[in-house]
Amino acid sequence: IITLRTYCDFLLCVTSLIYFRNEGSLTSTLRTLLFFSALMITLPVGLYFSSKAYVFEGSLGMSDRDSYFYAAIVAVVTVHVVLALFVYVAWNEGSRQWREGKQD
């Protein structure tokens, strides 16, 4: 079972790899955008179904109707976390590129 903590650790690891790459501005920006686009699609959907089946119905024994509701909340929170990580990485990437351009 892949937990939310595992996903968060994976996200932080990959975002740090993206952040510390020394590539061209356009290539780095495109990779960051594609990476977070893929996360935006896969992570909320994956956490929705896994939390519904394993956490809310399996562990907590909730009804089918209640588990849909709480799994949707997990998916929405995941979307917000991915968006916040994207803004953080994009902001730092832009600041880094601006500082490097200013020193030339």
Automatic annotation (TrEMBL):
Pfam families: VMA21. It is a multi-pass membrane protein. The chain crosses the membrane at residues 30-49, 69-91. Keywords: Cytoplasmic vesicle, Endoplasmic reticulum, Membrane, Transmembrane, Transmembrane helix. GO terms for biological process: vacuolar proton-transporting V-type ATPase complex assembly. It is found in: Endoplasmic reticulum membrane; Endoplasmic reticulum-Golgi intermediate compartment membrane; Cytoplasmic vesicle, COPII-coated vesicle membrane. One of its GO terms (cellular component) is endoplasmic reticulum membrane. Required for the assembly of the V0 complex of the vacuolar ATPase (V-ATPase) in the endoplasmic reticulum. Belongs to the VMA21 family. This is Vacuolar ATPase assembly factor VMA21.
